[in-house]
Amino acid sequence: MKKNITALLQKGNLTPKERIILLLQNDIITATTGKEPLTEADKKALQNWQAKTNQQAQEWNKYSEGWKLWAKGGLEAEIVYLDARVEHFRESAINTHLHFYPYCRRARGLIAGLEKIKEVNFKEAIEIKNKQREAKLKEGLDINKAIYQLAFESLSEDLRKDILTLYPDAATEIDYLDEEEIIADLLNGQDWLTKEAKEKLAELIAAKSYNAFAKEYQLFHYFASIQLLKVAGRWAKEKGLKPTKIYSKAEELLIKKVAEEQKISEGEAKETLFLENELKDILENYARDNKTTIEAILKETLIKWLEEGLPYLPLVISDNKATFSGIDTKLPHKEVFKEWLKAKEQAKATLQALIDKGELKVSEKIITGESLYNFKGDYKFIKDFKEWTDEYNANLGIVYAADDPEHKGDNLDQELLVCNKYNIGRPTFFSNVSLIAKELKTFFENLGFIKEIEKDGETILDFDNDKLKKAYKEIRENLINGYSKLLAFKEAFKKLSKTYEVDLTFLTSSRLEEVGDFIDQHNDALREALGKKRYIDGKDEIDIDDIESLNLFSKRELLKLEDDLFIDKDKILPDIDTKESWGKKFISILGDDF
């Protein structure tokens, strides 16, 4: 703009329009930079100019009136902004409660847990603890798990470290090494599988896809080092299936960051998302439509895969020391496995000797809890069992024996409050726990104005006050209307900017951005209340700086709203009435120059 001013000032005979443009540009530059290009003498020369013809006077008046109308429009746009700002502050108290709701909801859940604490006297506490102890003793210990635990504790420090390097949870989870042993048995001293062995292994791996406890298919399980998800991915590749999800801008940023951190391509990152987010549903639908099962699909895919060779080197034939963690084992994998089998055989022989002597008793492949508890030896796994038996575990979930008429069906998974009691069963004093629970419950019940409704298996959030809900909806509409009107003013001023050769949208643009931020805060508060992650650009609930807590690779169950109260800025259009009204006003003064 400074260049335009200099060029026009150097020009000889300025037209009335050019004089108005110089003065207006001077005002805009002064307002935006604080520095005024024109001197007082320049301004006086431009303002005190006298028209010599009627045409010059008309031109001066035309552009001068257009300038004044723009200023008037700017004032009206400012009022629209101020109205939206009032609505924003009016909403702020509600937003505070929405932001706080997840914490309030969690607190209410914890308080409900406090209220479930069972009030017992000392005698009752001892009886309940003993009941749980009896249940644990009846449970005993699976003999295969006992063999595993004894073998693991008998290992040298170096060998134990090597096994934990191969599988970090090997101290407590027996599946990994047991499944490696199954594969070793199927190989039977060879480095390849027979046809029968391939079918058996494929059947065992495919069967692990179904979680009987959860009653659903889960593809994240492993059989030794073979992940079921990879098997399903191979099937998808054979079928030519591709990702169908369209990722948002924020999710694309997250995918890029994941790819950089894991040193893989963005395509591989998206492929991982496809496998983990979409493939289970695709498999279930395919199995249903083709009257088959997921196990059958995975088994067939595995058999084809095994025809090409083993998907990875089993421990029994691996000369490697490298692991997925990036840390090498001290011994080659096959040597680690060989030593493990020796330790396991020795543990099995040791336990069998104890059983033969009668020091440990076995019933249906379970070492009885009583014999473990009464054992006098110095084995760590037996010490751990004794400690576990003697502890009271409030969340263990062991049920009283069905033949106990007094407590039949009662569960032992609850905290106990030990206190003196009246004969009628009530505490003889106000316990601090009960008092705190009561006070907190009253506080959180009176805090906020959101209620939860169970509808079609989903938890729906809604306002518990109709007047407040109505007011909130009005605020929402007023924010949308304010943004819409400012869009209309910006569009009109942008068009006017071409006429006056200067940006006349600068103030309206900043006000529009502020109202857009009000809308973002409105949406952010709703997202918080629903338990969603914060947004990046006001649209996507993704935080790319928090990859660990936000896992795109898993489905998250979220609450829902009774009504759609979010505002999508991208769908807000310029207000038609404002646009047409001000367009007519500018055309009536500037004509074709607008």
Model description:
The protein has 594 residues and is mainly alpha-helical. Helices cover 60% and strands 6% of the residues. The strands form 5 sheets. Strands 2-8-7 form a 3-stranded antiparallel beta sheet. It has a 3-stranded mixed beta sheet with strand order 10-11-12. β3 and β4 form a beta hairpin. α4 packs antiparallel against α19. It is elongated, with a radius of gyration of 38 Å.
Structural key phrases:
mainly alpha, 21 helices, elongated
Brief overview:
The protein is mostly helical and 594 residues long. The protein contains 21 helices and twelve strands.
Present the secondary structure layout:
Layout (H helix, E strand, L loop, with lengths): L1 H9 L5 H18 L6 H8 L6 H62 L2 E3 L1 H18 L1 E2 H12 L2 H10 L8 H13 L7 H13 L2 E2 L4 E2 L4 E2 L2 E2 H11 L10 H14 L3 H12 L1 H11 L4 H14 L25 H25 L4 E2 L2 E2 L1 H6 L5 H11 L25 E3 L13 H15 L3 E6 L2 E6 L2 H35 L5 H25 L29 E2 L14 H15 L4
Parallel strand pairs: 1-9, 11-12
Antiparallel strand pairs: 2-8, 3-4, 5-6, 7-8, 10-11
Helix pairs in contact: 1-2, 2-4, 4-18, 4-19, 4-20, 4-21, 6-15, 8-9, 9-14, 10-14, 11-12, 19-20, 19-21
